[in-house]
Amino acid sequence: MKESIIRPNMYSFLKLLKVHFNKSTPEIENILLYLYRGDDLSKTPTTINNGFNLIKVDYSGGLFEDSNYIDLNR
Predict the structure, then answer these.
(1) How far apart are CA 35 and CA 7, in angstroms?
(2) Do the Cβ atoms of 36 and 59 come closer than 8 Å?
(3) How far apart are CA 15 and CA 68, in angstroms?
(4) pTM here?
(5) Taking 60 as the threshold, does the pLDDT of residue 28 lie above it?
(6) Exposure winner among 26, 46, 59, 64, fewest CB in 10 A?
């Protein structure tokens, strides 16, 4: 079974956040991260719990420079 690339990506992202904020406490916000490919938004959540913000991330641009990171600039 092939390992998902989201786990190492999230680990790297959270590690960068930890380094960025060092010992200060950032403002915390609840989000629902919705990853989708292309124009297919038919399965986009229409309702989410109060206190959460929906963040849509289109990953149809592919991966960044042959890495496991999503290229958000395409």
Answers:
(1) 14
(2) yes
(3) 16
(4) 0.56
(5) yes
(6) 46
